[in-house]
Amino acid sequence: MENEYLRADGISKSFSSKTVLSNVSFTAKRGEFISLLGPSGCGKTTLLRIISGLETADSGKIFFNGSDYTNVPASKRNFGIVFQSYALFPNMTVTENITYGLKSREKNKKAKQNIADEMLNITGLYAEKDKYPFQLSGGQQQRVALARALALKPSILLLDEPLSALDAKVREKLRREIRSIHDRMNITTVMVTHDQEEAITVSDRIAVMNGGIIEQMGTPDELYFRPKTKFIAGFIGMMNFMEINGEKKGIRPEQIKISTSFSAEGENAVITDMEFRGAFIRLFLNMENRKTDTALVVDVSSFDTDMSRLKISSLVKVQIPESAINF
Amino acid sequence: MKGTKASYLFIGLIFLYFIMFFFLPLSQIMKMALYDNSGVYIGLKNFAEYFSSPNMLSSFKNSFTVSGIVTLVTFLLAFFYAYSISRIRFRGKYIFRYISMLSLFTPTMLHGIALVYLFGRQGIVSNILVSWLNTKMGTAHVFPFDIYGAVGIVISEVIYTFPHAYLILSVSFAMSDYRLYEAAETLGAGRFRRFFTVTLPSVKYGVVSALTTIFILSFTDMGAPKIVGGQYNVMAVDIYKQVIGQQNFSMGATVAVLLLVPAFIAFFVDRAIQKKQDATFSSKSVPYTPDKNLFAEITAFTYCLLVALLILGVIGTSVVVSFLKFFPYDMTFSLKHYMFKYVAGDISSYFNSLKMSFGTAVLGTAASFAAAYAAEKIRASEILKRTPYMLSIMTLAVPGLVIGLAYIIFFNSPTISLPFIEVKNPLMFIYGTMLILILANIIHFIAVPVMTLTSTLKKQDREYDSVSASMGVHPVKTLFRVTLPLSINAVLDTFFYFFVNSMVTISAVIFLYGQDTKVATVAIVSMDDAGDTAAAAAMASLILFTNMAVKIIYDIVSHYIKKKTAAWQTIQR
Ligand SMILES: Nc1ncnc2c1ncn2[C@@H]1O[C@H](COP(=O)(O)OP(=O)(O)O)[C@@H](O)[C@H]1O
Ligand SMILES: [Mg+2]
Fold first, then answer.
1. What global pTM score does this model have?
2. Which of B190, B216, B295, B376 has its CA 20 to 30 A from that of B458?
3. What residues in A contact B470, CB-CB < 8 Å?
4. What are phi and psi of B231, to 5 degrees?
5. Tell me, what's the ipTM?
């Protein structure tokens, strides 16, 4: 059982006639950090809500720690959930929000206070404990939502795009914090996101979803180096598709070598467009002897002085590596 | 989404409530119109009789004539009033807004009484002023028109409907998007071009809504025509005469059904319009900020001042006269009319009104919150949970008079006949009690509060309930700790709305009061019938004072709540 602490088994769901999830299955080990990654509208939130018990699947089952949880109501599952909107109660202070779910019948006020203090410390909100949500920054609000979910010591933590409302900088900082809270509390976590970078950096394993199914589930490097579908390849990083010796291959832009000298080995190509991206320059190439539907995308370091002299319509040599991925 | 047993029970109860207190009574009125007074089925004979009676037919025409004129006049007055206040800058807008609202606080009879004092046979203008002018100038003019009749009704109804139209229109004006004006201006559109290409289109839904509202309000009002209609009959008063005067329920029901027809049409027009308006309104609209224009400012101010003085003049006349010993012979101050030592109505009717209005406010607020809560918060299928909302909105199509008549027919009958069965009426005991007045008022006024509360709940994050559910918190705790505190302003509004409307209403209650539950508005009608006009004016003024006092309390309470909740209120839109 240790191998499948949480298991979704053949989950399907439609709203009126629209199929949102079809036969989705995955498992999470105890203490694992799982991401559900996919473009907007692919059914991530719906799947998360089904796991939490807030939504019921049309078919399929949810198992938790070996028992069938499919018909257990949300209130009895003890899964903590953080919503995209945070849904903090605006009329309650940070502390009140955090302790909201703790049983009011519990006479032991001290115990309640202790839990609140613990959560405030873990999330670094102690100084903010008597403020109301609107007096906090977006990042702090996010932490309150997290603390509120954690206060009940949930068996599983469910996060729905927890960082999507934040600025890029705050987002990076917080995702590291979320991971470190996960590690410290050793809490099994399922996070929904549409941001591949976010998923790659924090997750143990990622389930990439597309159009209501999981296309592939695996560790970040599995997905990067051994994508099973074109969709995965294009979604985790960037991928060029071409035919080499009659075989369909995928090559990542950062794998391709470019040379400006005519004597160098490789195929001839013309630069049709280029984008400065900071650390690297993205080139769009037209290959002389190869017919492709789309331009070949190649990333080169912007610190390479040879490369920084390149212009649109410059001629270059392209070296396609051997280690291309088969499709 | 699957609901729990409790949520089905909750929706079921609301459903049952509307069946018992809305649909069944209403169906009895339809039925009654098809039967004669002794209970024999006669098909459409009542209607044939109605349209062949010259008297009835003339009221039919009169109702349409009067309401048509009122609609036009009120609309024009209110449109420019609302336009001035929301689109042109000048001082004193708060006062103007307040004055325009005054007639929401008075029963329509008060306007009728005031007109009689101003323009009646011994009126201030028609008699005192005219004869003073005649002696001054040695002429012998007589006052040119008789206030009893169409003129009196029109003026009263204009004052009665004015605030309703003003409110609808000012909401429309407030909703239009200032960015459109800026865009039009940068494209070189002049003041008039902007008015016709931006202002008018953006308020067109409000305009239709105002027109239908004015029409229906004046079409179904019976208070003012009862006082100042004289020989000029209208349908609303006909119902009253048929039922109370001649005990002819089936003819009363027939007129009521005819009264329902335009009300239904107006209702559906208004609904269709509302849907369109909701669709076009963008929540990102930027409010309008007027620019400087001295000429427009002076014109607008003068216009608003004139309208405000007109309203104040009419309402003020009733109030002032109620404090005079014996108008027009002894014009000294006196409180004697406030002693209510008359057969036709005493002070107990005032206390009954207070009780009824308070009861309506408490129960009505609870009922409308329940309907809104069902629509927005209950976990059940979409259709099922929208039903309470739809049912409450439908009550908007049924005038108070019709509700009153439906209730008297339904709750006074020992059996309820449903399509196939006849059952004993379990609710007959409420007949003649305070409870039936309260229940009638709730159904009469429930639509607006349900709309207000629903839109308030809609603005709250849906995930509040999901969060609570996932934490294992009981929904009732969430209701009291989160949902209600976040809706407190709307709840207070609702309470106030029910109270004030119940204080001034006559239409439903006139059929339903019992020996010990005569309310103030009914007393006004009987005092006026008995010739105690000054006492009627006093009672009407007393209602006005009460409502003004309640408004002050309301303002204080909402100010207090604002202060109390200031720490987190800003997050709410
Ligand atoms: N309650 C609902 N009723 C109808 N359609 C819904 C409902 N919830 C989600 N959907 C639809 O299901 C699809 C998947 O939604 P969602 O799970 O929120 O996607 P994601 O979170 O991946 O963006 C969307 O097309 C959405 O419009
Ligand atoms: Mg989502």
1. 0.86
2. B216
3. 52-54, 74-75, 77, 79-81, 149
4. -85, -5
5. 0.80
